[in-house]
Amino acid sequence: MKSTNITWHEQQVSKKERQNLHGHRSAILWFTGLSASGKSTLCVEIEKRLYALGMSTYVLDGDNIRHGLNKNLGFKPEDRSENIRRIGEVSKLFVEAGIIVLTAFISPYRNDRDIVRKLVDAREFIEVYVKCSVEECERRDPKGLYKKARLGEIPDFTGVNAPYEEPGNPEIIIDSEILTVEESADLVIKYLKDHQYLELR
Q1: For 93, phi and psi rounded to 5 degrees?
Q2: Which residue of 123, 157, 179, 197 could cross-link 183, Cys pair, CB 3.0 to 4.6 Å?
Q3: Is the whole-model pTM more than 0.85?
Q4: Catalytic residue of the set 26, 35, 91, 107
């Protein structure tokens, strides 16, 4: 059921003014990939580096969000889409606040990711595909989820009994089977520097 009788309330401080306060541009770094591909680990490393550079950042992690904001959602396709829709709207708020937000979500459906991209201005959505084969993710399996999925204990598990749609044209591709976390973070930081996200122009 949609909300009714609501009115958008304009604010007196603009996104640009908030960016000026922080001293850098704001954006969504949207990390997508299979479970155990290394999204969360990479987000944590990159945020640590950006913080050291004086950037205002925040990490939104898939598991963490499902402990609170999205704890009423499961993993069926419609729940996955709603999960990403909510995260997209929250991420947009961070962008409006002048912050660089890093999101670590499997986000298996291309259309859901494209919807989030359209929520913000051009260049404010940076899709980072953390590429890793199912075989390697399953070999790592730090939470034992692939094993449970193979045993039929977890239905709708991406990569086993639910699909993952690879990004068609991501801004950054990280091959986590080849690159270390440090090398991967170097690539992302270089992209941000090369495209003037870490300064105001």
Answers
A1: -65, -40
A2: 179
A3: yes
A4: 107
